[in-house]
Amino acid sequence: MSPTNARVFPPGLYEIAPDAWTAPFWDAAKDHRLVAAQCGQCQTFRMPPTPFCPTCRSQDIKWTELSGRGTIYTFTVARHAVLPVLKDVVPYVIAVVSLDGADDARLITNIVGSDPDDIEIDAPVEVVWDDVSDEMTVPRFVLAPSF
């Protein structure tokens, strides 16, 4: 039996609604650039972006481009469809990825294209871009060789 690679949700199952704090992230994603919010005062990264820096309470924010690499902090593999629309996409992997170059910033995402049994905590990953539509691009991650 051959392994089944982790998949992504079908288009239309979710909607991304950028706001003033998240629009720069989604705009960069459309250009296939991974960015993270960073405090303009103390340089603390914060993902998801928030109105105030958790360290110094500043509202000064800048968007820093990252390498697109990271490591798996934690993950779960969904092997059973909780909704009928998901029956054709299991298994799928939801993960929290620690982003290289962004201190403790983490991103909730999917790990795709690999046998879910090969996915483990601290595994290196790289971003891949899922152009869901002309208006929406979602960063997902694949397992990467050690770097």
Q: How far apart lie the N and C ends?
A: 31 Å
Structural class from helices and strands?
Answer: mainly beta
Indicate the low-confidence ranges by residue numbers: none
Mean pLDDT: 90
Secondary-structure blueprint:
Elements: H1 23-30, E1 35-39, E2 61-65, E3 69-78, E4 92-99, E5 106-111, E6 124-131, E7 137-143
Antiparallel strand pairs: 1-2, 3-4, 3-6, 4-5, 6-7
Description:
The protein is mainly β and 147 residues long. The protein has a single domain, classed as OB fold (Dihydrolipoamide Acetyltransferase, E2P) (Beta Barrel), CATH 2.40.50.840. 5% of the residues lie in helices and 33% in strands. The protein contains 1 helix and 7 strands, in the order H-E-E-E-E-E-E-E. It has a 5-stranded antiparallel beta sheet. Strand 4 and strand 5 (106-111) form a beta hairpin. The two termini are 31 Å apart. The relative contact order is 0.22. The model has no long low-confidence stretch (mean pLDDT 90).
List keywords for this structure.
147 residues, mainly beta, five-stranded antiparallel beta sheet, 5% helix
Could you give a quick summary of the protein structure above?
The protein is built from 1 helix and 7 strands; from the N terminus they run αβββββββ. It is mainly β and 147 residues long.
